Amino acid sequence: MELLPEDTIAIGPSDENWPNRDAILESSRQFAAGGGKLIRLEFPKTEIRAYGRTAIIYTTYLFETKSRDGQRNTSSGRATEMFVLRKGKWLNPGWHMDSGK
Predict the structure, then answer these.
(1) pTM score, two decimals?
(2) Taking all residues of the chain, what is their mean pLDDT, rounded to a whole number?
(3) Which of the residues 27, 46, 85, 88 could staple to 59 if both were Cys, CB 3.0 to 4.6 A apart?
(4) Confidence of residue 97 (pLDDT cuts 50, 70, 90)
């Protein structure tokens, strides 16, 4: 919660609605409560651009999850993340992920 400000918006590869901070955190809680685990996270290519109190990260990503029953799912694509410096802390108010296809 410290990293995500109240005005956070995220856009995922298949999101019709753009989740806010509460929806992002609730989705994470449900994933963990259901026995889901993140088992691999990679950022093969990353570039960062800083503009004063704002930084933008351009990256490719790959992550693998495992469900309670052992089923694995791999996702990959591209992402752009924004970070802003507020009250001495870098916060992540938004990102956009796509499949890269």
Answers:
(1) 0.85
(2) 94
(3) 46
(4) very high
Tokens of 71: 């089923």
pLDDT per residue as tens digits for the range 9-51: 999 988 889 999 999 999 999 999 999 999 999 999 999 999 9
Token pair for residue 32?
């963990």
CATH of the domain at 41: 3.10.450.50
Q: Is 48 part of any domain?
A: yes
Indicate the number of domains in the chain. 1
In a domain, 21, yes or no: yes
Segments forming the whole domain that contains residue 67: 9-98
Q: Decide if 4 is inside a domain.
A: no
